[in-house]
Amino acid sequence: MRVLLVEDDSMIAQGLETALRQEGYAVDWMRDGRSAAAALGTTGFDLVLLDLGLPERDGLEVLRELRRRGDATPVIILTARDDIRDRVRGLDAGADDYIVKPFDLDEVSARMRSVLRRVAGRGDPCIEHRGIRLDPVTHAVEHQGTAVPLSAHEYAVLEALLQRPGAVLSRAQLEDRLYGWSEPVESNAVEVYVHALRRKLGADAIRTLRGVGYFIPK
Ligand code: CA
After folding, report:
1. How far is the CA of 139 from the centre of ligand 1 (A)?
2. Count of alpha carbons within 13 Å of 181, Cβ hemisphere only?
3. Which fold has domain 2-119?
4. Sheet architecture: strand order including 140-143
5. What is the average pLDDT across 159-184?
6. How far is the CA of 159 from the centre of ligand 1 (A)?
7. Cis peptide before 165, with omega less than 30 degrees from 0?
8. With 90 as the cut, is the pLDDT of residue 187 above it?
9. Dihedrals φ, ψ of 43, to 5°?
10. What pLDDT is recorded for position 29?
11. How far apart are CA 41 and CA 37, in angstroms?
12. If you measure from the C-alpha of residue 185 to the centroid of ligand 1, how many angstroms do you get, rounded to a whole number?
């Protein structure tokens, strides 16, 4: 999962960035509205955490422009406790949810999961497919009923592939899901994670389409 975090308060942003990375999200952090709009115009994100009071361009403006383009990327706005008007305006402008500052990091990740679940149209948060069961809330993975311990990166690769069985994801697309822009991409990392996943889930769990990418059969 790749998250765009737009927040000009460094302390809040760094705390969030660290916590989300520990949960296995790839996080890109933008400090102003103009950079955020530029990032949203060029890169696909799974979710946006958007502060409203931003330098250069207001968060609401960034959100409205995104929706005008027909981009339905889920957006959670970050607002001040006393600013009910901001929350209403944010929701009316197309935000999926809001979080009131100061917030608890557990609440942030719970709301992110809830929004992502809603967007995926699933009531049950677990994904089950071909004997693999993945719980995005706990990050627990089972294969044929047996718990399979995965690293955060292995989990991220599996989750990306399981979200759309049959769809081929290229190495670059998988790297996008694993790393933010500021993190160095280790060469062959995707191959290493796929290899580890095959070892743990069966050689057939993930297929290679030579020269194109990887997929999980439908
Ligand atoms: Ca702010």
Report:
1. 31
2. 11
3. Rossmann fold (3.40.50)
4. 127-129, 132-135, 140-143, 146-147
5. 87
6. 32
7. no
8. no
9. -125, 145
10. 96
11. 6
12. 30
**How remote is the CA of residue 87 from the centroid of ligand 1, in Å?**
14
Specify whether domain 127-215 bears CATH 1.10.3210.10. no
| Domains 2-119 and 127-215 agree in fold | no
Please report which confidence band the pLDDT of residue 122 belongs to, taking 50, 70 and 90 as the band edges: low
Q: Name the CA dihedral angle for 208, 212, 216, 217, rounded to a multiple of 10 degrees.
A: -90
Question: In angstroms, what is the span from residue 68 Cα to ligand 1's centroid?
Answer: 23
- Sequence spans of domains, the chain: 2-119, 127-215
CA of 34 to the centre of ligand 1 (A): 14
Ligand 1 centre distance from Cα of residue 72 (Å): 23
| Tokens 């993930």, residue located | 206
Q: What is the DSSP letter of 185?
A: P
**pTM of the predicted structure, to 2 decimals:** 0.75
How far is it, in rounded angstroms, from Cα 67 to Cα 71?
5
| CA 104, chain centre distance (Å) | 19
Give the residue from 110, 40, 47 showing the smallest Cα distance to 75.
47
